[in-house]
Amino acid sequence: MAEDSNQLRVRLVSPERTLFDHPATAVDLPTLSGCMETLYGAAPLMAELGAGDVTIHGGPDGLDAIARYNVSWGFAEVLPDRVTILANDALRPEEIDVPRAEEQLDRGLQMWREAGDSETAYDEALRVIAEAEAKMASAAERH
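Structure (tokenized):
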């Protein structure tokens, strides 16, 4: 249960670790259908995460970003008083290895060029490209 009646309990976990488990006023999620903001009292839902940043808001005015994590894929469960994010991969912006993300982008572009008529290969190439671009954007924003 959230500590304050207007706050969500936000928990972000990956297979390796729990990254965040605290109250917050709002959470921005990168879903496959676009960015979504979750506030206290939201209707229950499940969303599939895409590549991008999970931004958790709080602080004295409730609007400050108190944490940001880059995720590549996963699910989010939204309930009126809590948000649970299960991420396949989650990193703080300062943990992102930019040269490795650039290599991932090059690999994705090569996969895209070689996809031919295979819709599955094309979709996988686009997924790899989106993940790499999201990591590089997240790392760039930390400066």
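The chain has a mean pLDDT of 90. The beta strands are 8-13, 18-24, 26-31, 34-39, 45-49, 52-58, 64-71, 74-79, 82-87, 90-91.
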